[in-house]
Specification:
- The protein is built from nine helices and eight strands.
- The protein is of the alpha+beta class.
- It has a six-stranded antiparallel β-sheet with strand order 5-4-3-8-7-6, sandwiched between helices.
- Strand 7 (199-207) and strand 8 (213-222) form a beta hairpin.
- The longest helix is centred in the C-terminal third of the chain and has 24 residues, at 228-251.
Length: 253
């Protein structure tokens, strides 16, 4: 997370409360006060303000995040060109492969899932639409990192780290930059269980004719089905072709 030049503490406190409500899936004034080490009066004042603006709701003495946040998030997602242009192609990928197909974008050094489409054999994973993930340990994230300036990538790694989620996660910068170079060379990235055990992913960057990276798309499935010619040739061709189509359409949108 970057640091504001002249932070407004009251805004920061309200955002902290929103995050606590998200983590605890609801909390009382006392819970918030204890969690953030503030007085009950301070917690109550912030919660009352958030309630008045319909950001939170109150049920049986507990505060919860309100549906207003979903409305705002959906408006933001709908405003992304890659969402409108990419959904038909990603839905087609899911239908053609029977697996899980995805769109991911980068913001503030994190990846966020904009869309997921399930084929008839797709796995149900723990990352739904709107989920935010590290970039270094996913095929989608690496496809994006490979086409960002190296200085920016290093800054992302400085800020967000390279935590391991499986024993296959790349945690060495040298190894990661070698992988990013290979991704640029072949045109797509591979995730061999780097974020989730037993899951393999093929991802390709969505790049417009001006060279701008807009995000990435992928197909993910269990390693039992993601192997051999299917992993080496068929799915990479489908994913890269779809990414090219999305990039071309975005270029002339």
């Amino acid at each position: 997370m970057s640091t504001a030049k002249n932070p407004v503490r009251s805004v920061e406190r309200s955002l902290e409360i929103i995050q606590v409500l998200r983590e605890l899936d609801g909390a009382t004034v006392t819970d918030i006060a204890n969690h953030l080490d503030v007085t009950k009066g301070t917690a109550h004042n912030h919660l009352s303000t958030l309630l008045a603006h319909e950001v939170v709701v109150q049920r049986e003495g507990e505060y919860h995040l309100g549906i207003r946040l979903f409305e705002i998030g959906e408006e933001i997602r709908s405003g992304k060109q890659i969402y409108h242009v990419g959904v038909p192609e990603v839905n087609k990928l899911a239908e053609e492969t029977g697996e899980l197909a995805n769109i991911l974008i980068e913001e503030h050094g994190w990846g966020t899932y904009l869309h997921r489409a399930q084929g008839d054999r797709a796995l149900s994973l723990d990352t739904g639409v709107g989920a935010r993930v590290h970039l270094h340990n996913t095929g989608l994230g690496k496809a994006i990192l490979a086409h960002l300036p190296e200085e920016y990538v290093r800054d992302v790694l400085d800020r967000n780290g390279m935590p391991a989620t499986t024993d296959k996660t790349i945690t060495s910068r040298g190894h990661l930059f070698e992988d990013l170079a290979a991704i640029r060379e072949r045109g797509y990235s591979l995730d061999a269980g780097e974020r989730a055990e037993g899951i393999r992913c093929v991802a390709a960057p969505v790049i417009t004719r001006d060279g701008e990276i807009h995000g990435a798309i992928s197909v993910a499935g269990p390693r039992g089905r993601m192997k051999g010619e299917r992993l080496d040739t068929k799915i990479p061709e489908l994913v890269t072709n779809a990414a090219d189509v999305i990039g071309i359409n975005l270029s002339y949108a």
